[in-house]
Amino acid sequence: MDLRVRALETLLVRKGYVDPAAIDRLIETYEVQVGPHNGARVVARAWADPAYADWLARDATAAIASLGYSGRQGEHMVAVFNTADTHYMVVCTLCSCYPWPVLGLPPVWYKSAAYRSRAVMAPRAVLADFGVTLPADIQVRVWDSTAEVRYLVIPQRPGGTDGWSEDRLASLVTRDSMIGTGLAQAPAVAAP
Ligand code: FE
To answer: Which three-class secondary structure state does DSSP give residue 33?
Structure first.
């Protein structure tokens, strides 16, 4: 794979179709600037500020953009809030649609045929694979991304976090908890 990628890159550069500096810039953007730490800030704000959470529920695209996160693959955002009765999970059954501005690029498993099919057919089994076992009375709902709409799961705020700053709260928010294949970390786990 490595050789094939390098051969392809060499050809594209030689023919002048791509600029290596532009590619480097793109890679750096998604390695450093854009990633799940952005989504974690959105979740932390929603936990800390009920007015923001309300805005996020009504117009996620605008509420997220207000924190500086917008652009490709995030033009039409929908935030789904986990509750005591309902757990949400996100998949793209067709391919790999994913909210880049808040989560970065999708993990390999998100794009796999196994996840894309099993998330719909057997969501609880998928959750178990991720080490998440939910009580039977919690409903699991799976959202299938479309070519336009991208979902962000707002996990439930862990107990024992009263009075925490947004920075501290954000440290509990994992990537998987915003896809719905995980839960936010409990304070004890996140403590140094
Ligand atoms: Fe897709």
So the answer is: helix
- CATH architecture group of domain 35-179: Alpha-Beta Complex (3.90)
* Whether 95 is catalytic: yes
pLDDT bucket at 29, cuts 50 / 70 / 90 = confident
Of the candidates 92, 145, 171, 177, the residue annotated as catalytic is: 92
Distance CA 121, CA 55 (A): 32
pLDDT digits (tens, 9 = 90+) for 131-165: 999 999 999 999 999 888 999 999 999 999 999 99
- Provide the CA 81 distance to its chain's centre, in angstroms: 13
Q: Is 177 noted as a catalytic residue in this protein?
A: no
Q: What is the pLDDT of residues 170-187, one digit of tens each?
A: 999 999 999 999 999 999
For the chain, residues classed under CATH 3.90.330.10 are 35-179
C-alpha of residue 186 to centroid of ligand 1, in Å: 31
* Ligand 1 center–CA 165 separation, angstroms: 35
Phi-psi label, residue 9: left if phi above 0, alpha if psi -120 to 50, beta otherwise:
alpha
The reported pTM is 0.88
Active site residue 97: yes
